[in-house]
Specification:
This protein is 27% helix and 27% strand. It has a 5-stranded antiparallel β-sheet. α1 runs antiparallel to α2 and α2 runs antiparallel to α3. The longest helix is centred in the middle third of the chain and has 18 residues. The radius of gyration is 19 Å and the shape is globular. The termini are far apart.
Amino acid sequence: MTSVSALATPALPAEPSPSIRENYRLVVPNSPSAPRIARDFVTSLLLVTDHSALADDARLCVTETVTNSHRHTHSRLIRLDVTVAPRLVTVHVRDDQPFALPLPGALAGELTSGRGLLMIDSLATHWGWTIYGGLSPTSKAVWFTLTENEGTG
């Protein structure tokens, strides 16, 4: 049996590691202003966290994903979860319509919408969607990851 001394000096907290991921959340009403609010939030976040090299691409991708959620769902709220790590950012845009899945224009044939997802595909390192709720789906998130190239930022 190992004993623990009540007099032991606690270890000092370690300096923050540069590989720590920071998570941020924004919840906005599903309204025409939601894309602008979300875009401005993510842009400000990237500038403050020294990810300015990703800001322009993030603005476009956030605008597209939040606009799609606003236009194609009846969710009351749209939630953004942003993970910032060294040299990358991942954004999840979540709504309460698990079966309103994104369909890029190239797959949709002659549809007049869906072209924004092709833009996301060209800008993002990875993108996709996740359905939440298991056998009784309750929501979905469309997500994308942007990565800084060597020597940028």
